[in-house]
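Example 360.
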Amino acid sequence: MKTYRIAAIPGDGIGSEVISAGVEALNACAKRDGGFAFAFDHFDWGSERYKKTGAFMPDNGRDLIRKHDAILFGSAGVPDVPDHVTLWGLRLAICQPFDQYANVRPTRILPGIVSPLRNVSGPELDWVIVRENSEGEYAGVGGRVHRGLPEEAATDVSMFTRAGVARIMRFAFALARSRPRKFLTVVTKSNAQRHAMVMWDEIAAEVAREFPDVTWDKMLVDAMTMRMTLKPETLDTIVATNLHADILSDLAAALAGSLGIAPTANLNPERTFPSMFEPIHGSAFDIIGKGIANPIGTFWSSVMMLEHLGEPSAAARLMRAIEKVTADKSLHTPDLGGKARTADVTKAVCDALAGDNQAN
Ligand code: NAD
Ligand code: MN
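Predicted structure in complex with nicotinamide-adenine-dinucleotide:
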């Protein structure tokens, strides 16, 4: 029997609560499937380790997880360490060297969940946002001079490469082609940003010619926020830069009902390195240790992990279990207006998996 080796990195805050729920659901999924198993290795990397040792992960950290089939990540961030130190010390220290350049964020309104948008209840909102995850505005290029002096200056330079833009466009067009509507929206800001964003548009048009069966359009990022809220049914697959998609995908998560539900995959499509799966949300300081963190974002990320591992029927089964549970309002956690606890939701998903009689 195939055993998938998964590196579990809960990180900070509610990370450990949602990751242990995710491990439970994935094991239940493997048990129900019968064709594969999981072997989880747990890593205590995160801010507590940083405060004790000065590093979020050991020097050879990436070597310890390089051969794993996938990474399941919780969250990184605590109140007493600056967020940029944490982000670059842990999440980006994995994403960037492992070349996880395609960040994929599906958004749908699951059964039983109410969107804050009037007149939107389900089929009108079914998107996948593809975020360029390796360069652009978050390339880390820039610097500060004259620190603390009146003439202090600082730059964050966006860095776009032809290779980087072409590969994310190809990924996005291919993903759009795999979905029923075969429709891609390319988000840009080439009116105000006249160098890199113009190249971004040009490369989009070039790559589009390789995908004659995909229809596409172009949208300025500011106007995109309006289209997402006022005409959600006109969107399907979306590709945007690191910064633009970061912002748009939080909006998407809110429109779909709660940040606690939204999933993410950080993919290295060539599979040279392991890919990483994580809920979109952060450490949620206000609910740490209360046992009420919504584990659905982690479960849905686990569905994406199963798809990536090549277990589509197990992925579909876990997604069915999630939808069965969200449809039952007595199983909603407080972020969805309910009273259920993390453990209740997790048990219900595991029970739904065990009781799922569909063959595939
Ligand atoms: P957050 O996502 O942690 O919390 C925002 C709000 O959403 C809070 O009210 C929180 O209780 C709620 N929430 C989030 N996830 C939830 C869940 N699963 N169930 C129920 N409620 C949930 O965002 P924030 O407050 O901006 O950030 C807190 C910390 O997390 C910061 O240090 C930030 O840098 C970090 N962060 C990390 C990641 C990541 O590791 N990928 C992502 C976002 C934020
Ligand atoms: Mn973000």
